[in-house]
Amino acid sequence: NRLKASREVESVDLPNCHLIKGIEAGADDIDILPNGLAFLSVGLKCPGLHSFSPDKPGGILMMDLKKENPRALELRISRGFNLASFNPHGISTFIDNDDTVYLFVVNHPEFKNTVEIFKFEEEENSLLHLKTIKHELLPSVNDIIAVGPAHFYATNDHYFSDPFLKYLETYLNLHWANVVYYSPNEVKVVAEGFDAANGINISPDKKYIYVADILAHEIHVLERHPNMNLTQLKVLKLDTLVDNLSIDPSSGDILVGCHPNGQKLFIYDPNNPPSSEVLRIQNILSEKPTVTTVYANNGSVLQGSSVASVYDRKLLIGTLYHRALYCEL
């Protein structure tokens, strides 16, 4: 039941879509700046998870969604950063008061857990590496939402970092996953009790944090306090494995990349590939939020959707380890 192992999807097609050239091994997370520049985290590898290019390191791609036919270009990363072991997972951008753009990247070099902070150099199409963060309260980081130049909330999808203990933790359904607040002065657990905390994002007014619990099929709404602590406000139950969360800047709606059937995702069979599903959630704070299916596919086009981000009627859908889709709505 946690994997929704028997679920199949009815296709919901969008008319103006094409696969993005150059993305063949996943675009797990996507974040779009207010000016239409989209960052895509590509090439994630996890123990036990399928990969279409197991020997190629991951990277960060960029697309300019203001352009007519945007292409995905790989961003150069400053010297001194270990590119060979780059294994990017969740990402988040932060724009400082002086318009400096920071890119935060969850990284798993040799399957360890770090958060990398880069400065985006737009003129050079490059990332300048500023800092690597490791911390005992970040044992199994999945996703991140930046709230300052070195400040963020992050999800741990497991309590343990050891692969066997992780497996046991999931198998025993311990609900020990959590959300951590990190700043240079203070690091603390601010929410806990998740089955597997995954995607995280923030409301446009910055008052609420949204957390996807992938194996519980839930989105949690947490209220932020001045001391950065969180208290749970409500839980929205869904019939699918919820992965990454994005905010539609024009409406405040939440877009969710989902896995209708987790068993197909984790046990890969090319003849019965994992399906894809994108949900839009309107008015999540209301008594009855509206949940609509934006896109669904049985895996014939797109396998294992993990994120959907929108900018000015343009939609990007990324996947855990397959291709990525560009649609004009």
Automatic annotation (TrEMBL):
Binding locations of Ca(2+): 28-29, 91, 142-143, 198, 243-244
Location relative to the cell: Membrane
Cofactor binding mode and count: Binds 2 calcium ions per subunit.
BP-aspect Gene Ontology terms: lactone catabolic process; response to toxic substance
Predominant localisation class: membrane
Protein name in the entry: Paraoxonase
Native organism: Neovison vison (American mink)
Active site: 89
Entry EC number(s): 3.1.1.2
Membrane protein topology class: Peripheral membrane protein
Lineage summary: Eukaryota, Metazoa, Chordata, Craniata, Vertebrata
SUPFAM superfamilies: Calcium-dependent phosphotriesterase
InterPro entries: 6-blade_b-propeller_TolB-like, Arylesterase, Paraoxonase2, Serum_paraoxonase/arylesterase
